[in-house]
């Protein structure tokens, strides 16, 4: 096994200090003799030395690395959110350290600790915990943060946030459903994260149902499979009278609902209404198209990254909240 070459080995071979080698690695040649620089660069070449990130940061005040925590990288929403963040950070000269927290508060806490240890310049968080206390250590460590997508309780007003107008859009949806003659709203949720974006959606629809005299029920699918959902769905549906609309509160649930509708020989909008969150391009070709509440995931990531870069470069942790509108894409499933 070949020996791992360190910055100390280079310094010894060149007859200089570790600090001098670090300065050369990071491009700081001020007040340095050309012969010294050539000697160090030759030692680096001869020893086949590859600088580590920690060596490169030895004389830097910034790492030019930003930590990005997403709840579930397998969810297309999280993937597009991360892409929107990376598009801006790359242009601004920052690399991202992307970490999947699997919608777990414990995993999230450990991931944050690793990011602090890596001396990242900032963190963008799609949170799992609803309590801001989980993220307070970043402030104590002078690491700017931006919360994205999900809402957190007790978040200081000066901490940046970018999210969708989930509550308001769902309240407007409830009014539309009433105007279209529906008597019952049945939502289907899968709140894996404590700080789920489905919480304000449920609140908006529930308030709209109350204000417009509609019945409201929710089926929480967490921990259950499609077979369980089909049984529970049929049970709920049979207990309702009048026109019913089903609202998928997160995109992936839509796949299960479409399979269940097919197995029960239900068509929309004749037998039942159907609404889904997120932008599924193929949804326009299902039946005569599925009615959508569409979020712009990449734009959300762009704005969050811009907020963070502004804080980093201006050395100010003061930021603001941006609430993105949710586009209603009216199609024939209602």
From TrEMBL:
Stretch forming the signal peptide: none
GO terms for MF: DNA-binding transcription factor activity; transcription cis-regulatory region binding
Coiled-coil region(s): none
Gene3D superfamilies: 3.40.50.2300, lambda repressor-like DNA-binding domains
Residues covered by the HTH cro/C1-type domain: 2-30
Pfam families, sorted: LacI, Peripla_BP_1
Domain HTH lacI-type: 5-60
Secreted keyword on record: no
Keywords: DNA-binding, Transcription, Transcription regulation
Protein name in the entry: LacI family DNA-binding transcriptional regulator
């Amino acid at each position: 096994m070949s020996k791992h070459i360190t910055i100390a080995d280079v310094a010894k071979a060149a007859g200089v200090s570790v600090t001098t080698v670090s300065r050369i690695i990071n491009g700081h040649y001020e007040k340095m003799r050309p012969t010294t620089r050539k000697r160090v660069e030759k030692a680096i070449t001869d020893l086949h030395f590859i600088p580590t990130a920690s060596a490169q940061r030895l004389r830097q005040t910034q790492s030019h690395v930003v930590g990005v925590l997403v709840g579930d990288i397998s969810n297309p929403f999280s993937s597009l959110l991360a892409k929107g963040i990376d598009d801006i950070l790359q242009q601004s000269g920052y690399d991202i350290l992307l970490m999947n927290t699997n919608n777990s508060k414990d995993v999230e806490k450990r991931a944050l600790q690793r990011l602090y240890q890596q001396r990242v310049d900032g963190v963008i968080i799609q949170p799992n915990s609803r309590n801001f206390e989980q993220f307070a250590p970043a402030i104590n460590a002078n690491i700017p943060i931006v919360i994205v997508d999900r809402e957190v309780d007790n978040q200081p007003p000066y901490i940046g946030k970018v999210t969708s107008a989930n509550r308001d859009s769902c309240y407007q949806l409830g009014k539309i459903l009433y105007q279209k003659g529906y008597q019952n709203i049945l939502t289907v949720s899968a709140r894996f994260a404590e700080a789920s974006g489905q919480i304000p959606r449920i609140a908006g629809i529930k308030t709209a149902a109350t204000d417009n005299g509609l019945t409201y029920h929710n089926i929480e699918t967490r921990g259950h499979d499609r077979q369980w959902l089909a049984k529970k769905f049929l049970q709920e549906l049979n207990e309702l009278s009048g026109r019913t609309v089903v609202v998928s509160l997160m995109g992936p649930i839509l796949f299960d609902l479409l399979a269940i509708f097919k197995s029960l020989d239900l068509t929309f909008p004749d037998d039942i209404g159907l609404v889904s969150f997120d932008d599924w391009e193929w949804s326009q070709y299902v039946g005569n198209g599925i009615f959508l509440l569409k979020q712009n995931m990449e734009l959300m990531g762009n704005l969050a990254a811009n907020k963070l870069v502004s804080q980093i470069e201006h050395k100010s942790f003061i930021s603001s909240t941006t609430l993105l509108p949710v586009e209603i894409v009216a199609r024939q499933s209602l």
